[in-house]
Amino acid sequence: MISVIVPVFNEEESLPRLYEQLCAALEPLGQPWEVILVNDGSRDNSAEVLDRLAAIDTRLKVVHFRRNYGQTGAMMAGIDFASGDIIIPIDADLQNDPKDIPRLLAKLDEGYDVVSGWRRDRKDDSLRRNLPSRMANWLISRVSGVKLHDYGCSLKAYRREVIKDVKLYGEMHRFIPIYASWLGARVTEIPVTHHARQFGQSKYGLERIAKVVLDLLVVKFLDRYAQKPIYVFGGFGLLSLVISALVGAWALYLKLFLDVAFIRTPLPLLCVFTAMLGITCILMGLLAELVTRTWFESQGRSTYLIRAKRNLD
Ligand code: UDP
Ligand code: MG
């Protein structure tokens, strides 16, 4: 079974056409399919449109969030409720083309676990969107070691087993291929069609760049140090204490051998400051160790509240 996951936030005009296009793409495959539409607290008529569509076609499953949680939360809910062994997220705004789905599936059949879409000919504003996105993709590739051109493209295909345990926070849906790859999945990409937005407007602005960079930091940190945060905090702490000792020794040397009074140089201040910083870092590292233990041992919590469900028991 194929599960298509669609996060929806204020996309009322696009939804009927999206439904038609998805049917046209999925029907000829001759496999059972479902589309899970997650209404991420839309403030327009998306909820009514979704309920109407779900009433005429039970292959459409709808989840209404109580409020707006963001694309990542919506995608997470979609994954939680999907029953297919293949999971395909796609945007609701018709910018991705459902016609690409058969090609993604064909690529999966070649033996891959994740096939990522690459909007090679991207139809978004070039200065505000495409340039920052290109830099972000380069950075993510470098830091993660997973070589993809377009992490931000929603249209991807996953085998269920590689993402069933993934927990997503912040804006991290774009990093799913990285998690999957770290867990040993075979990841590849194919160019996909991209259309300009016809209805509504993009939900993101430039602030997304900062979020992506910070998320990347978190992902890298979690990957390398989630089980040993004290190595990072304690590392900084020890470094700071060593600097403190060196600076203190220098100040003493000046005082004892060259008769330079302590208050004549900033060294004693620096010594105290770095010592305090070092101790604080180490204590924070111990706290972080406590936190990670809680974190590892309290999995299985839901990160969203659901208002209503359709065609799901
Ligand atoms: N989206 C969402 N919640 C949000 C923001 C966006 O579910 O808070 C959905 C939106 O409806 C669309 C997809 O995420 O289906 C991508 O959003 P958008 O088209 O605004 O992003 P862009 O294509 O501009 O990168
Ligand atoms: Mg879009």
Number of strands: 8
Ligands in the model, by name, code or SMILES, are: uridine-5'-diphosphate, magnesium ion
Q: Tell me the count of domains.
A: 2
Largest sheet at a glance? 8 strands, mixed
Oligomeric form of this entry?
single chain
CATH-defined superfamily of the largest domain: Spore Coat Polysaccharide Biosynthesis Protein SpsA, Chain A
Query: Which percent bin holds the helix content?
Result: 40-55%
Beginning-to-end CA distance, first to last residue: 18 Å
Q: Mean pLDDT across all residues, rounded? A: 91
Q: Architecture of the largest domain, CATH level 2?
A: Alpha-Beta Complex
User: What ranges have pLDDT less than 50 throughout 5 or more consecutive residues?
Assistant: none
At the first level of CATH, what is the class of the largest domain?
Answer: Alpha Beta
- CATH fold assignment of the largest domain: Spore Coat Polysaccharide Biosynthesis Protein SpsA, Chain A
Secondary structure topology:
Blueprint: E1 2-8, H1 15-26, E2 33-39, H2 46-56, E3 60-65, H3 71-81, E4 86-89, H4 101-109, E5 114-118, H5 126-144, E6 156-159, H6 160-163, H7 176-182, E7 187-191, H8 207-225, H9 229-258, H10 267-297, E8 306-310
Parallel strand pairs: 1-2, 1-4, 2-3, 5-7
Antiparallel strand pairs: 3-8, 4-6, 5-6
Helix pairs in contact: 5-8, 9-10
Bound molecules: uridine-5'-diphosphate and magnesium ion.
